[in-house]
Amino acid sequence: MMLGTLGTLAGKLDGERQDEMRVIGSCPLPGSARHVFISGDWAYVSAWETGLHIVAIRNPWQPVLAGGIRTSGTAKSAWVSGNLAYLADGPGGLRIIDVSHAASPALIGTCVVPGSARGIQVAGSHAFIAAEEGGLQVADVSRPSSPRLLGGCQTKVKAKSVALVGRYALVADSFGGLEVMDASRPSAPVFCGRYDTPYNANWVAATKERAFVADGISGLQIIDIRDPSTPAAIAAVPLGYAAGVFVSRKIAFVACLDAGLKAVRVDDNKPPRVLMTLPLPGKALGVFVRGAYAFVAADTAGLQVVRSGLTFQTQG
């Protein structure tokens, strides 16, 4: 059965079934799988020293490594749009890679950034880069062969990931918590507000009104961002060590290292609660959800494909 078929489930969450999440497929990879991004029938896995790997997931039961590219930096995370992958390559800065041929991806552009490129999101002609000690950096990628740095804004500690919500960039800033930047002028983002999370903000996902921070040993932190100048705590969910998070249809899927993958219900009007837990081989470091599937970057265990087991009801 193809991903495109099962990936069309949509609508209002009707409740939890008794079915547990389960691993239905896996793909061994060279190196340590740290982050995964899904686009079309492909999974793009960032694996630090071994670069970016491209995995065919048209059949999620049998994911197959199609190709990859080793970079001179440390491949930490990627964002894919069309035939281009934008790679946060650690000390190698921003790399733009042509992935139109999965078996032979080709580097076409490079941009040096202050610090070490770790997290990335692309919107239009701009790449927003969480650059660790370099804070939030923004690059013009309108010409992929010659991207150029526009400007940036220093964060308190170490920028690890970034999520865009309207004109704002939300930055997971390690022990500096969650920072909110006004990015309406990409060449000069401006600090708006901060919420000091209890531990180590590793990754951030967001909806229009809420930020979801994977905060290390303090688990999942849910933060109200309706007033960007004063983000405020809504709830905290103890989970073990939260390394990555992806929010889909009122469910937060959290990568929790040795504790595996956890699914947390995060309805606006109900207290959050853990629905399911799935131990995994390796360490769950990053997660991306598409339809009924969660794709997990599982360190030395490569890419793990998980069927969520949740029930969705189509709205009538």
**In total, how many domains does the architecture comprise?**
1
Strand order of the largest sheet: 2-29-28-27
Q: Into which percent range does the helicity of residues fall?
A: under 10%
Tell me the fraction of residues in β-strands, as a range: over 45%
- How many alpha or pi helices? 1
- Helix-strand category: mainly beta
CATH architecture: 7 Propeller
Rg calculated over all Cα atoms: 18 Å
CATH topology: Methylamine Dehydrogenase, Chain H
What top-tier CATH class fits best? Mainly Beta
Residue stretches low in confidence (pLDDT < 50, at least 5 long) are: 1-18, 311-316
Shape: globular
State the CATH superfamily name: YVTN repeat-like/Quinoprotein amine dehydrogenase
User: Could you tell me the mean pLDDT?
Assistant: 92
The multimeric state of the shown protein is single chain
* Distance between the amino and carboxyl termini: 26 Å
The number of distinct β-strands equals 30
Largest sheet: 4 strands, antiparallel
What can you tell me about this protein's structure?
It is a single chain. This protein has 316 residues and is mainly beta. It has a single domain (3-313), classed as YVTN repeat-like/Quinoprotein amine dehydrogenase (Methylamine Dehydrogenase, Chain H). It has one helix and 30 strands. The chain has one helix at residues 3-6; strands spanning 12-16, 22-27, 35-39, 42-46, 52-56, 64-69, 77-81, 84-88, 94-98, 106-111, 119-123, 126-130, 136-140, 148-153, 161-165, 168-172, 178-182, 190-195, 203-206, 210-214, 220-224, 232-237, 244-248, 251-255, 261-265, 273-278, 286-290, 293-297, 303-307, 310-313. A four-stranded antiparallel sheet has the order 2-29-28-27, with no helix packed on it. β12 and β13 form a beta hairpin. The radius of gyration is 18 Å and the shape is globular. It starts with a helix and ends with a strand. The model is unreliable at 1-18 and 311-316 (pLDDT under 50).
